[in-house]
Amino acid sequence: MLSEAGSTNAVLRERSVDARAWPHLSVLLTDNQTAGRGRLDRTWTAPAGASLAVSVLLRRLPSAVDARGWIPLAAGVAMADAIAEQLPGHEVAVKWPNDVLVDGHKICGILAEATHDAVIVGSGVNTAMTASDLPVSTATSFAVLGAEVDADRLLSAYLGELDTLVATLAAAGDAVSSGLHAAAGDRCATIGLEVRVSLPGDRVLVGTATALDPDGRLLVRHDGIDTAVSAGDVVHVRPA
């Protein structure tokens, strides 16, 4: 555990060059990340002690590059399950591709980054943030929900399931055969909702999210046609 880090993903990337010292499933974490990054290079900050930043090094990867695209979704499923264990009575789900929501509010964001021989999965969990600490009204935390997180239990559950999901994906060769496709679909809050997707080239797609395809892309139906979205900023038009 680091007392402070600019970005746990960046620190782990630097250290991962030494493969013997930093093997598969090595972890860096801190409760004081000062320069975290989210998707689309958005900055992510929180008061010291109010959140938990965790970065995991995955070296045992699926041989098929397309299957590796499922790793962020696997992390979302694993984190959602770990959080759900400690928040009984709440609806815990994944907003495609990998934000974790509790009762429709974001409690965790996940960012996966590839190195030359590994994948680093970073996550930021809102633990002790108060309502006034939250960056947006659509966010939440364990504290806001009246719960005190057991960080050791959360990490153990998350790492164990993430390792299992990725190992099963690697062994099966694809997400459908491994069961990850079904697990991600079951946890996905986005499916069935009207969404607005900001696409490359300043394009916007508005429609109903209908399913995840076998490659992990979000299928969005507009005027009776399903469009497969592989990347883009997704907004739930109505709450999950």
Q: Report the strand count.
A: 13
H-E order: HEEEEHHEEEEHHHEEEEE
Characterize the main sheet: 6 strands, antiparallel
Major sheet: arrangement of strands: 1-4-8-7-6-5
Q: Can you tell me the residue ranges where pLDDT is under 50 for at least 5 consecutive residues?
A: none
Proportion in β-strands: 25-35%
Q: What form results from the Cα inertia axes?
A: globular
Oligomer: single chain
How far from one another are the termini? 34 Å
Query: Percent helix among the residues?
Result: 25-40%
Count the DSSP helices. 6
Gyration radius over CA: 17 Å
Structural class: alpha+beta
* Mean of all residue-level pLDDT scores: 92
Question: Describe it for me?
Answer:
The chain is built from six helices and 13 strands. With 240 residues, it is of the alpha+beta class. The strands form three sheets. The chain has a six-stranded antiparallel beta sheet with strand order 1-4-8-7-6-5, sandwiched between helices. Strands 12-11-10-9-13 form a five-stranded antiparallel beta sheet. Helix 3 packs antiparallel against helix 4 and helix 3 crosses helix 6.
Features:
240 residues; alpha+beta; six-stranded antiparallel β-sheet; five-stranded antiparallel β-sheet; 26% helix; globular
Helix-strand layout with pairing:
Layout: H1 8-15, E1 27-30, E2 36-37, E3 43-44, E4 51-58, H2 65-68, H3 71-86, E5 92-95, E6 99-102, E7 105-114, E8 119-126, H4 151-172, H5 175-178, H6 180-187, E9 194-199, E10 203-212, E11 218-222, E12 225-229, E13 233-236
Antiparallel strand pairs: 1-4, 2-3, 4-8, 5-6, 6-7, 7-8, 9-10, 9-13, 10-11, 11-12
Helix pairs in contact: 3-4, 3-6
